[in-house]
Amino acid sequence: MFYLAIDILGTIAFAISGVLVAMEKRLDLFGVFIVAFVTAIGGGTLRDFLIGNTPVVWMQDATYLMVVILTVIFAILFSNQLKYLRKSLFLFDTIGIGLYTLVGVEKGVEAGLLPVMCVTLGTITACFGGVIRDILCNEIPVIFRKEIYATACILGGFSYFLFHLLPMPPQYGYALAIVVVILLRLLAVRFKIGLPNIYNNAK
Amino acid sequence: MFYLAIDILGTIAFAISGVLVAMEKRLDLFGVFIVAFVTAIGGGTLRDFLIGNTPVVWMQDATYLMVVILTVIFAILFSNQLKYLRKSLFLFDTIGIGLYTLVGVEKGVEAGLLPVMCVTLGTITACFGGVIRDILCNEIPVIFRKEIYATACILGGFSYFLFHLLPMPPQYGYALAIVVVILLRLLAVRFKIGLPNIYNNAK
Amino acid sequence: MFYLAIDILGTIAFAISGVLVAMEKRLDLFGVFIVAFVTAIGGGTLRDFLIGNTPVVWMQDATYLMVVILTVIFAILFSNQLKYLRKSLFLFDTIGIGLYTLVGVEKGVEAGLLPVMCVTLGTITACFGGVIRDILCNEIPVIFRKEIYATACILGGFSYFLFHLLPMPPQYGYALAIVVVILLRLLAVRFKIGLPNIYNNAK
């Protein structure tokens, strides 16, 4: 129940980020909807393709589709007001990637993959919706340029396996790993921590 | 037999639309072929990925590949004359999306999906070849910007389930739903009906 | 053992080509890594999606991931020196597409596909990593514009089936077909052979 609520909040946050990018590109109503939908479900879809989990999750349950449709209608109607929600959106989005990462990690565990592959799956689940959103809008994906985003997912994903070694119930480790992703992301943004610069020369 | 003929006409129309976009970008022979092929089979391929129908349809039967190869050769040889065929091409394309939509809807029904997901699958089958074509050519997909295209697929897809409720043989409902997609598209283009504008300010 | 070594050399060459493109676009560390990884494994991943071979190959064995991580670290540390390696890189890359093509062809044979589809699978395995790399970096894929690349894969793929008709052990035909891909590519580059120009008018 709690997880479902977070999952839906994450879907909403991802869908709204899609609406915002699509409206900046002045796509039509259908384009805005598709970009919102792909942002929300793209990562999970790629994850399901990679492990052969078909029909993919969002086809088995209409909840995601309905949540995105309602979110898009709401976001378009109140597009002028959305800017006042930026802080809440950032929070939803951060909670969303925390949960999506761990959902992906667990799918990998269920599929019998190595821990490093489970973490990869989790990171793909959390991050690739945004990558596909940016490709559809003809941009170089934003997470390739200035976000610590993926790094939080990777470290949080590995923390799940560390917590697993400790003497506590597995669902605690699961929840703690979500918290690790969220905290790392919040701290990185708060203290403007980024990846090390790999370019010698200024440009 | 009839459906097969329409299917091949649709494949030809989609492939030619790919050739036209690729030649505008001045891709080489191989690039033109790939873009034509992806336009023709991209939607069905994504549909097959989503429901786990592998090997995907075009790998099981060489017809599609051969039709695209012949179409590309023809289209390049007669590229100067293609502009006189625009009206026929539009008709083929419209018939093509009608058929592709319903092929996708039925695949969804066979996979036991909810009606709304079947309609989604049908729309993906009909529309995503063009989306992938535009991404490969580094354009924002045209159906996100000015086409009523997808809306015709969605409404036609739902009409299939409505016709299903009426006392008539299922293949009639199937054929009628194809006609609905085609008519909606023709009417939208004829009367310049578009999606409602979601932007307040002119730009 | 020999094949594994070649496979790893191919992975390294593809990964380095990804690093070079990504650094030109000034992506961050994570972006460079993802582009390198996708270049190295993208073709094989699409192949596995198409035939339903899941979890995809690189998820079942951490070798590819590890090789790419080490390659990226090395390539970034020595990015100034990489330009002196261009000739070796071209050679690795050429050997890589030779091997990747035949790996894809054999997967198609195992899946019971028609020869023309096996050749298509092989070409996808060898070429689509680079296509996805260019899409992620917001470029029209380079192989659509000026490379004979794919043609070498296609002809080499068909040669496998020709060699199969001759009275020699199958692994000889396999190895010879790899040599055909490599030789065609080297000859095309050496003698500047390209695809025929399909445009009448200069631009």
Automatic annotation (TrEMBL), chains A, B, C:
Compartments it resides in:
Cell membrane
Keywords of this entry: Cell membrane, Membrane, Transmembrane, Transmembrane helix
**Main location group:** membrane
* Classification via Pfam families: Gly_transporter
How this chain sits in the membrane, per its record, is: Multi-pass membrane protein
| Matches recorded under InterPro entries | Gly_transporter
Report if keyword Cell membrane is assigned: yes
Which domain of life does this protein belong to?
Bacteria
Q: Which positions, given as ranges, span the membrane? A: 6-23, 30-50, 62-82, 89-105, 111-136, 148-166, 172-193
One annotated Gene Ontology cellular component of this protein: plasma membrane
Q: List each copy of the Glycine transporter domain by range.
A: 5-79, 91-164
Q: Which family does it belong to?
A: Belongs to the UPF0126 family.
Query: PANTHER family, alphabetically?
Result: INNER MEMBRANE PROTEIN (PTHR30506), UPF0126 INNER MEMBRANE PROTEIN YADS-RELATED (PTHR30506:SF3)
This protein is called Glycine transporter domain-containing protein
Q: Which organism's genome codes for this protein?
A: Croceitalea dokdonensis DOKDO 023
